Amino acid sequence: MSVKVSHITHVSNLNNIIAEGCLWSDAKRIELNLTNENIGYSHIKARRLQHPVTVTAGGYIGEYVPFNFCPRSVMLYVIHQGHENYHGGQEQILHLISDVDTIRATNSDCFFTDIHADLAFAEQIDDFSRIDELDSKKIHAKYWQDCKEEKQAEFLAHQSVSWNCIRQIGVKTPELAEEVKKIIASSNHQPDVVVKPEWYY
């Protein structure tokens, strides 16, 4: 069974994703001058635009679309707490769920890391026969203070991930589920919308 992956974004970005037909990398989104509700740390995003990738298509981490191997990520906790670049909380955050095989079927330039990709000592791996080396127990840990970096292992796809690759959209509340269903109603591709409060803090 293919390994599931999760990308978080603000609900206000969903119309753009559908209109573009894909999730763009930060670098490509900046190049295209697309509006975006940024929920991450600006300084980390800027650093990732200069952090070299030594495997697959090369370039920089910011030229890849990032996914975690679990919902309820460490970054979502930071968003929930509020940080200097975003204070909107987690109520409007979506989990866009796909899996490694589905994305790789449409994008051959992918790799994964054993810990948070931005860390200098993160291993970049494009040999997917090694994906079982990831520590699933730590990645899915509910209490992750002792395994914070391992929980933040990443799957990264070069430039874009097709909207058609998104299989499921996880939300915190029934109200947001209804909002999402209205947004995707006119889309040819309609992922399942699921209310998953356990994916949140």
Automatic annotation (TrEMBL):
Record keywords, A-Z: DNA-binding, Glycosyltransferase, Nucleotidyltransferase, Toxin-antitoxin system, Transferase
A GO term for molecular function: glycosyltransferase activity
Domain (DarT) ranges: 3-201
Organism, scientific name: Photobacterium phosphoreum
Family assignment from sequence similarity: Belongs to the DarT ADP-ribosyltransferase family.
Binding site for NAD(+): 7-9, 48
Active site location: 48 (proton acceptor), 154
Signal peptide (from-to): none
Descriptive protein name: DUF4433 domain-containing protein
Reactions accelerated catalytically: a thymidine in DNA + NAD(+) = an N-(ADP-alpha-D-ribosyl)-thymidine in DNA + nicotinamide + H(+)
